[in-house]
Amino acid sequence: xxxxxxxxxxxxxxxxxxxxxxxxxxxxxxxxxxxxxxxxxxxxxxxxxxxxxxxxxxxxxxxxxxxxxxxxxxxxxxxxxxxxxxxxxxxxxxxxxxxxxxxxxxxxxxxxxxxxxxxxxxxxxxxxxxxxxxxxxxxxxxxxxxxxxxxxxxxxx
Length: 157
What we know:
Helix content: 10-25%
Number of domains: 1
Structural class: mainly beta
Shape: elongated
Strand content: 35-45%
Number of strands: 8
CATH topology: Immunoglobulin-like
CATH architecture: Sandwich
Distance between the termini: 86 Å
Radius of gyration: 22 Å
Strand order of the largest sheet: 2-8-7-4-5
Order of helices and strands: HEEEEEEEE
Number of helices: 1
CATH class: Mainly Beta
């Protein structure tokens, strides 16, 4: 009988120790692109030889850390599956001089909400076509949120 009581008490102690008050504090940051000024949106066209202004709002219950913006070609029609928006894609092709952009930005200390913006220059001599615009934001606890946006890079007509 003592073994059974000891086993039950041990099991309850182990189960009670599995959770903690900090479990409720674990969260990934949020990327808000659902407001009028947010840019780029899915399926938008930007133009080579020009610049555009990235705008998003990042938030978290914890302090934010930094964010990264990346642009890479989608000439092979791969997917990042962060949105269920389907854009019209051009025919598959091999890159000749595809645009590649990858830059990290710091968020000022102590921020739990941040209006992010960055000017992105698109070279005039890069391949036009389908691209992915990737947004990654991390908080101080190293949790990350990712958003993939489909864009086109084209010539202005």
